[in-house]
Design brief:
By secondary structure, the protein is an alpha/beta fold. It has two domains: about 110 residues, 2-Layer Sandwich (Nucleotidyltransferase, domain 5), CATH 3.30.420.40; about 90 residues, Nucleotidyltransferase, domain 5, CATH 3.30.420. The chain has five helices and ten strands, in the order βββαβαβαβββαββα. The strands form two sheets. It has a five-stranded mixed beta sheet with strand order 3-2-1-4-5, with helices on both faces. Strand 7 and strand 8 form a beta hairpin. Helix 1 runs parallel beside helix 2. The longest helix is centred in the first third of the chain and has 18 residues. The N and C termini lie far apart (about 60 Å).
């Protein structure tokens, strides 16, 4: 049982929550693009003060580890590591795609989402990896991994063998761009499932109880792909 600050900045969503024993006490989040550096520490300060807490009260800090946005991950992880260093707290790294899958499971369990034969379905969270690629993985309804994380280009033949016999649930901001590509009655696309610290709480609690911590000094986000700087459209030196 633990009091944990959960930080999620792996996509366009900037989200933080305080959880106790896996239950969320307070949270803040926004989907305002490129807002992480501006809002993250403000959100953390607000929810900590609203709960009448100090950082000495926390048992651990949890951060979404990726894959996802290079810049977003750097901001989240550097903030989490700074807090851990300052208060000598353990750091928990939460798989971003597993967290997304956990969000769908939570919604089904709360009857906010209805999926026929959900327990037999394959959960396929997807994060936009730019261009035609997505970061994806497979999980079962217990949020256990069924296939490793990959960066892949989806075409009309992707997953065709699996879809012959099994229902696949696609969700996350990367799933929208493949919705018109995969044509199968067993391919179900769930909208409005975005990364959130709310989905991290039960996973970070489990990790804490198992003492599944990462090294604060050496931990790096799971980028999956190398960072590629974009070229400005205008040459400012001309």
């Amino acid at each position: 049982m633990a009091l944990i600050l959960n930080i999620e900045t792996s996509t366009s969503v900037c989200s933080v929550c305080i959880s106790k024993d896996g239950e969320v006490l307070n949270y803040r989040e926004t989907n305002d693009q490129k807002s992480h550096a501006e809002f993250l520490t403000v959100f953390i300060d607000e929810i900590v003060k609203e709960q009448n807490l100090t950082f000495n009260d926390f048992d651990a800090i949890a951060v979404s580890m990726g894959p996802g946005s290079y810049t977003g991950l750097r901001i989240g992880v550097s903030t989490a590591k700074g807090l851990c260093y300052a208060k000598n707290l353990p750091l928990i790294a939460v798989n971003t795609l597993q967290s997304l899958a956990n969000g769908v499971v939570q919604k089904v369990n709360k009857a906010e989402l209805k999926v026929h034969d959900f327990n037999k379905s394959l959960l396929v969270p997807m994060i936009d990896a730019r261009r035609m690629e997505v970061y994806s993985a497979f999980f079962n309804s217990d949020v256990e991994s069924e296939r490793e994380i990959k960066a892949e280009i989806i075409d009309e033949n992707s997953y065709s063998e699996i879809l012959k016999d099994k229902k696949m649930l696609f969700f996350g901001d990367g799933s929208a761009k493949i919705a018109d590509t995969i044509k199968s009655a067993n391919a179900i696309f769930i909208e409005n499932i975005n990364t959130s610290s709310l989905y991290m709480a039960s996973l970070s609690e489990k990790a804490f109880n198992q003492k599944n911590f990462v090294d604060v000094a050496y931990f790096e986000p799971f980028y999956l792909k190398d960072f590629v700087a974009t070229v400005p459209k205008k040459n400012i030196f001309k």
